[in-house]
Write a structure and sequence with these properties.
The chain is α+β, with helices and mostly antiparallel strands. The protein has a domain at 177-389: 2-Layer Sandwich (Alpha-Beta Plaits). It is built from twelve helices and 20 strands. The chain has helices at residues 78-87, 103-108, 116-119, 147-153, 188-196, 251-267, 275-279, 309-322, 362-377, 392-398, 402-408, 416-421; strands at residues 17-20, 33-36, 52-55, 62-66, 69-73, 90-91, 126-133, 137-142, 162-169, 171-172, 177-185, 203-208, 218-226, 238-239, 270-274, 285-286, 297-305, 330-335, 350-358, 381-382. The strands form five sheets. An eight-stranded antiparallel β-sheet has the order 15-11-13-12-18-19-17-20. It starts with 16 loop residues before the first strand and ends with a helix.
Length: 424
């Protein structure tokens, strides 16, 4: 059976075993095991060439609502959660770029969104979880019960046991439209000025035109929910053909797209955008990950502390210019100082930089290795949910809690990423 990352980087068929979740059979599944939800991670965090893959798609029940405390099974996706919560005038506290990820995946990768500067990552809102461990069966963990294991599981990339269900705090549902303001910046200094004035906005994110004549120019988007309610219009996403052999990705097509996009966004100063479209832009095109061609793509996402974030980002953008590397998606976003406490959680106070890179073999790997050196010198780190090639040395220097985390792992669980970075 063929299993790939969302970046389509693992294209070979390989001998593995797939099992639907069944509590009576968990201990009998050939190890090592890794749980698989929606397979929306870009790298090898959900791949397991040497063992079994446990599918959590049948762990998809909404269990309970007590005030704003939500309990649901790990296999339910954010789209379904959002539907139920909105009926009760509640919303998800944190949303990533897609609604198709599962609740378990959100916990295991401690996902973040456009509101991190105010709300932190998803792990900041978790109250308790039930997980299955090979040594103790199903146990409940929280800040009061097994706190070390609780904080190892948040951002723990699925290695501390199987997440069965999660209880988290939802936020008040304020409306289904976002009033978005687009501001043009010509360089990172202007970005910084706008960013400093945007800290009280509910959401903020910026897109950088890597193809522009000036380095570091782009569009800063910030927004707030408005109380007016728009009629929901159900519109099916368009689909990119899965088996299309043509490759449209090249420097010319990317430059044309980037310049058209920037001119369009510049012309839209203020707009009302449906919340779903704003928070989940990646859901507008099915199979969009296929657009990068047969070799797939990498998404490189880093974060560096605030004190030298702009110098570091400038250096990375300059390197891309030198290497004539272009991208449709180059994103800058400010992280706040609210921490979930997850031992392997990615966010830290500072600036996060994310870019999609078409897989061009050694040239792409060389560029990302150069990025790693820049990030390592700055005291930053790379997001494990999107990594497929980071060195173990860089990982250990940037995730200082890795030894404590390894001591809390369930040896029954492993993945390609854990063998590459954690030794087993």
């Amino acid at each position: 059976m063929r299993l790939t990352s969302w970046g389509n980087l693992s294209l070979d068929d390989y001998q593995t075993f797939f099992y639907d979740f069944n509590p009576n059979l968990l201990a009998k599944i050939p190890k090592p095991v890794i749980a698989v939800g929606a397979s929306r991670s870009y790298g090898d965090v959900g791949l397991n060439h040497l063992g079994s893959n446990l599918l959590t798609t049948n762990l998809n029940r909404f269990i309970n609502l007590d005030g704003n405390l939500v309990t649901a099974q790990a296999g339910i996706n954010f789209a379904e959660l959002e539907k139920v919560l909105n009926l009760h005038k509640l919303s998800l506290p944190v949303r990533p770029g897609t609604s198709y990820l599962t609740l378990g995946g959100a916990v295991a990768n401690d996902i973040h969104g456009k509101n991190h500067h105010l709300q932190g990552s998803f792990g900041c809102h978790i109250k308790s979880m039930r997980i299955w461990r090979s040594d103790s069966g199903v146990i409940e963990i929280s800040t009061q019960r097994e706190p070390d294991l609780f904080f190892a599981t948040i951002g723990g990339i699925g290695l501390t046991g199987l997440i069965i269900d999660v209880t988290f705090e939802a936020t008040e549902f304020l409306g289904n439209q976002i009033k978005v303001e687009n501001l043009v910046f010509s360089n990172l200094s202007e970005f910084n000025q706008i960013n400093q004035s945007s800290q009280n906005y509910e959401t903020s994110v910026s897109w950088v035109n890597i193809s522009g004549k000036k380095n570091g120019n782009g569009i800063y988007s910030r927004g707030n929910t408005v109380p007016e309610f728009a009629k929901k219009i159900t519109k099916a996403p368009i689909s990119y053909p899965k088996n299309l052999k043509l490759n449209f990705i090249n420097s010319t097509s990317i430059k044309i797209f980037n310049n058209l996009y920037q001119n369009l966004q510049k012309s839209i100063k203020i707009s009302l955008v449906p919340a779903g479209k704003y928070y989940f832009p990646l859901d507008g095109v099915n199979n969009w990950n296929q657009v990068y061609g047969a070799k797939g793509f990498y998404q490189y996402q880093s974060v560096v502390p605030e004190k030298n974030a702009y110098e570091v980002t400038e250096e990375m953008l300059n390197l891309m210019k030198e290497e004539k590397t272009y991208s449709f998606l180059t994103v800058l976003k400010s992280f706040g100082d609210k921490s979930s406490g997850g031992l392997l959680s990615f966010p830290m106070a500072g600036l996060t930089f994310a870019i999609d890179l078409q897989n061009q073999g050694e040239a792409t790997l060389k560029l990302m290795n150069q990025f790693d050196q820049i990030i390592q010198r700055a005291g930053g780190r790379v997001y494990l949910a999107k990594d497929a090639r980071m060195s173990r040395e860089f990982f250990e220097s940037s995730y200082p809690n890795y030894e404590k985390f390894n001591s809390l792992r369930d040896p029954y669980f492993s993945s390609d990423l854990s063998r590459r970075l954690l030794g087993f």
